[in-house]
Amino acid sequence: MKTSKFTKYGLLIALALIMSYIEAQVPVFFAIPGIKLGLTNVVVLFALYAMDFKSAFIINIFRIILVGFMFGNGVSILFSLAGGFLSLLVMVLLKKFTGLKIITVSVAGGIAHNIGQIIVAMLMLQTRSIAWYLLVLWFTGIAAGVLVGVIGGEIVKRVRWEDQN
Amino acid sequence: MKTDRDHENKSEKNTGDRSVSYKKDIIFIGIFILVGLFLAAVVFLTKQTGKSVTVSVSGKDVISFNLDEDREYMIEGKDGGQNLLIIRGGKAWIEEANCRDGLCINMGKIDSVGQSVICLPNEVVVSIGSGEVTDEGPDIVVY
Fold it and tell me: Per the CB < 8 Å rule, is B103 touching A161?
């Protein structure tokens, strides 16, 4: 692996950890569990746009495992994995096969993230009664996606992240 | 510079004009919102006041109550977790819990079929059902 890439991974993973820490300090919004701003997704979105899918994937997996061990537990790692990777999958497909803007890609990613988490919750609790919950998470996913998309888009536009071989 | 160039290339591909190039995105986000509204419509149109309250721990149903009978019940969740369930005035809610976040308390009062209060740390789900609890078997089992 090239040193420059290695350094970028380190930087972005560190940034994702800081974002997670900040988010862990902010009380839960609207008193509904699972609702977060998704600030860490800014980092993943950035990696996806300024680098490539592989980088975004690697950064995603490292930040989920590290954050899980630092602030969470086995269950929260499972939730993050489901949400994080469904979201990344949707985003990379939309980015690749449609000409959509980063904000729309981010919104789709936000919704996918929440759907992934709901699926895990359904499997874990063996209940389907949380479909009700999907409604709330659908709209908060859109809202969080817009925010992440705007921030991520501005960062991608401004940061000059050239490959200096 | 690489990213700047990429960005310009992308907007050129999308016919250049900024206001036009957002059309597809607006349609997409519009679809997301419409699907959300559709979900909302389904949820609210099929909404009906429930008859029973079912408590489950770690995926197994533990006990059921009728929603129209006032009572308090201490749910014994996973790993010594406890959630105090209150049924009063046709609504059910968690009054107290010893889980670390207490989110289940914040989830409020529920009374519609399919609604639920969930405590993930204790793996407790309290959900509303449509059928009345029949009096087969004991109402409450005391261990």
Answer: no
Q: How far is B72 from chain A (nearest CA, A)?
A: 22
Q: How much is the ipTM here?
A: 0.76
| Binary contact (A129, B115; C-beta < 8 A) | yes
Can you list the alpha helix ranges (DSSP code H) found in B14-143? 18-21, 23-45, 103-106
Give how many domains chain A has, as a whole number: 1
In A, which residues are within 8 Å of B14 by CB distance?
99
Q: What CATH architecture does domain B52-129 belong to?
A: Sandwich (2.60)
Domain that residue A48 falls in: 3-158
Beta strands in chain A (DSSP E): none
What does DSSP say about strands B91-97 and B82-88: parallel, antiparallel, or unpaired?
antiparallel
The pair of structure tokens assigned to A36 is: 């977060």
Least CA distance to B118: which residue of chain A?
A: A130
Q: Which carries the bigger pLDDT value, residue A26 or residue B125? A: B125
